[in-house]
Amino acid sequence: MAWPTVRAFLIAASRTIIVPAWLAALVLAQLSNPALTYPGRDGGIFLYIGSLLLRGGVPYVDAWENKGPLVFLINALGLWLGDGSRWGVWLLEFLFLLFGSAVAYHALRRLWGQLAALIGAFVLITSAGNVLQGGNFSEEFSLLFTCMAAGFFLAGLTAPRRSLFPFGIGVTLGLNLLLRPNLISMPVAALLTYLLIAAINHDGRLFARRLLMLGVGCGAVVLPVLLYLAGRGALQEMFRIVWQFNVQYSQEAGSGRVLDGFLSASTGIGPWMIAPAAAGYVAGLLRIAKRAAMADSQTQFLLLPLLGWPVEIVLSTLSGRNYLHYFIPWAPYLGILCAYLAAVAIGRLPTPRPVVVAAALLMALPALTAVPTWSDYRAVAEDVLSGADRIPEFEDPVALFVRANSQPEETVFVWGFRPIVNFTARRDAPVSYLPYPIVHVDTPLSRDWAEEFRVQLTSNPPVFIVNMIEDADRERIPDLDPAVRAEQKIRRQQVVLAENLPEVLSFIEANYIPVGMISGDTIYRLRTATP
């Protein structure tokens, strides 16, 4: 068979079968298996609030959390799809990452060809996976909307007068705002690029039209959610938590914080991805410098990562906490810049055959490195194929104990902020401010929530309090055991604890007794409760 025929066949197969399967394999290799793993704090509180929503609960009022409302709605949808199982949320994670990477791949292929697009998609997925930390984060779900914003921007470059594309960017802006207000770098970069193009071309009317449609698209998704929260009496509390508190939480940001964040992200994501992305950034700057008029769509599109990545670096380091999942939104920028660098290099190759070989090796890589992942999913697949009523999920022994020794209407509080126990034990918390005793910032707002916690705990004491402090928090959260607490060295200069902590500890010591220890966590029972 002639080489052109083989090449045509490979290209057709890759577009219809190979590349979609390859993207799905990449995504699957990054996700935690609910049958073997347990979500962390963020994933746990999102699941808990999602379950509250399905039972008529109200976000921010019934449970405190400083992320936007959309992540609760996504978790509620996943739990509904999975009939209460974490596998439903896992499915949404898979679909969000798969469609996000597919959108990015198709945009990059349109710009720079298939191999560059494959490299870009590979970098996007794996860089996000390196800092995924178990998944179910606001930042993870935002990747789809961020990639869609880039796709809408690229499509609009060939039809600048069409209002659909800036409207679509506005929709993605609104969706990311509803996930977390600082996840908006790509729409912001699109807006800045529109402004720059308008300034160069002296076309203020086009910029005004784009700005208007972007605002309409944003409002189309934000306003219904705000009306929903207002109807549930949660709008004011949402603004206090998501906006006012987060501003206070990030007030110590500065240039030093940005540098620390960049170093943390580079370590977490991997220098082998950051370095070529940085090289692609420099190559993009050189292209812009040579083409000041920016007449071609490729040059205009490059402005997205050139403007957006610095914005994202600042936004993701605002709080100064540098949790690795904060850097998930870097992935689209790394993917685009690495794809561009690859396109520059590929343009200098003498024949197409090395390109095909390199693409084949790249597509084979996930299959070679993800063997343990497929093995972990084998038991899950066997249960599905056997027609089991419920796919297996990992359950903490503490949650199993709580569920077995309490009634559904009784409440449980986890000292150490592990709301996943409430979710898996199917027992609500008696309080709304679950991170107690940490209040993060010393302001009247945080003192109000701490006092609200004390009132709720003492007026409606839970049947169990679980002393579940992770090793990493032993210098942040005082233990419930007075003897252990006396030996602790709390870093009070680095952590803000509630002022009323002594009163709360006195109440717990007077009304609760230890009844056992499970997996190193002490269970305290209310004295008036029936053993």
List the helices and strands and how they pair.
Layout: H1 3-30, H2 41-54, H3 70-81, H4 86-112, H5 114-130, H6 138-157, H7 164-179, H8 185-201, H9 204-231, H10 235-249, H11 255-269, H12 271-290, H13 297-316, H14 331-346, H15 353-369, H16 371-385, H17 397-404, E1 412-415, H18 420-425, H19 444-459, E2 464-467, H20 482-487, H21 501-511, E3 512-518, E4 521-526
Parallel strand pairs: 1-2
Antiparallel strand pairs: 2-4, 3-4
Helix pairs in contact: 1-4, 1-5, 1-15, 2-3, 3-4, 4-5, 4-6, 5-14, 5-15, 6-7, 6-8, 6-13, 7-8, 7-9, 8-9, 8-13, 11-12, 12-13, 12-14, 13-14
Structural overview:
The protein has about 525 residues and is mainly alpha-helical. The protein has two domains: about 5-375, no CATH class; about 395-525, no CATH class. About 65% of the residues lie in helices and about 5% in strands. It is built from 21 helices and four strands. It has a four-stranded mixed sheet with strand order 1-2-4-3. A hairpin with a 2-residue loop joins strand 3 (about 510-520) and strand 4. It is globular and about 80 Å long. The mean pLDDT is about 90.
